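Researcher: Can you fold this with nicotinamide-adenine-dinucleotide in place?
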Amino acid sequence: MITITKSEVTQIIEKQRNFFASGQTKDVNFRLEQLHKLKQLVTENEQPITQALKADLNKSEFEAYLSEISVVQEINYAIKNVKKWAKPKKADVPLDFFSYSGKIYPEPLGLVLIISPWNYPFSLIISPLVGAIAAGNCAIIKPSELAPHTSSLVAELVPQYFQSEYIAVVEGGVETSQELLAQKFDHIFFTGGTAIGKIVMEAAAKHLTPVTLELGGKSPCIVDTDINLEHTARRITWGKFMNAGQTCIAPDYLLVDQNIKKDLIAALQKTIKELYGENPAQSPDYGRIISHRHFERLTKFLNNGKIIVGGETNYEEKYIAPTILDDVALSDPVMQEEIFGPILPVIEYTDIKDAIALINSQSKPLALYLFTQNQNLQKRILQETSSGGVCLNDTIMQVGVSSLPFGGVGDSGMGNYHGKASFDTFSHYKSVLKNSFWFDLNWRYAPYKDKLSLL
Ligand code: NAD
């Protein structure tokens, strides 16, 4: 990985500013062409992308396809809709504005910075880029240094499809990130942890740059008794243990009705075996922890509560088995910090109001999951809790629907993206009011004497 110098960063920015000023990106046909190129970048390189993800995270080919290459759906959605999104929209004007017309023009912001994390290192850099391109911006993208194979592949591929005056990749770690953040951008789109999100926002504030922060948190998963147990267990196991639990919207912990806890744990144990075999360390479908630092952070959680499923670890391989913890105290670190790994604490409740109170006592999560067929309970949870998004009777799938804006609230982030929301994130909506010269009523001009009575 080549670390970039300050003068190199300034040079790229200057070139991109000039390119943006040429006005080319404002042409919607240009944007469409670039979206097609981005699609080609993904579809023509599925194999090297899959290999890089395998090397970084031991990601299986299937998961790589499902959660990373599938970013093509997002590109297709933008290709289908960008002309419609980019059109000025007529705005209603009040009756007494009869000589006026109002329009809202979406316009690109200019030069945007996209910083992404390592857990879905390909899709989380490409997905926001779709919005940046569709809205007509230039972009600098910085993949995560913790997924070095994917980062260098992105740095190799992007220049084959885009000129750097338009889209440029800057590789590097914290120092590079800070070098970039010191510059003035027209928007910063950051995906990562809450603590770093604060650093990003502080840096952006110096230039009054707007930010979108896609952050993390502890996403609760409530399980009521009114469920299909087998389906519930499978959907939770899949959502929690895919990518070895390193998913921002993975169910962080379970809140289970005590009447179903025993059955649910038995069903989860069975499902883990069905999905990953007797020994998940040998499963071709089970991932690894990204780094030894994260491995050590996670293995400390294994001292909290009682391990009832899994718990095996291998430092060399950065392997942690799919693990379920019982008897966890709310004051334990595993219940205080975002887990972001394959460890699932189970907390039981006897009254749903206690589960709601627990959720509301913590920072607002990115996702909330509820398994129940009871519609009143569904309504109650939606009404009495706040989270970035909610998925009822499933996990993770909400991220795959382009028409649903995706983003956090409170500590889990601000702003959102996917589909039209991505276009909106990278656009400024310019309001334009036009008057005509047919006539000029003089009621608003001085002298105002006696005019107040006309209003
Ligand atoms: P991170 O915040 O450590 O790193 C993200 C990016 O920030 C990387 O590119 C990194 O180089 C950069 N960075 C790190 N330290 C920095 C600093 N001091 N100054 C400037 N830049 C810095 O996050 P991560 O460990 O890569 O990812 C895990 C976190 O991301 C989890 O909290 C997870 O929930 C969250 N996440 C959120 C989403 C979402 O869509 N909301 C998606 C994936 C991950």
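Model: Folded with nicotinamide-adenine-dinucleotide in place. The mean pLDDT is 96.
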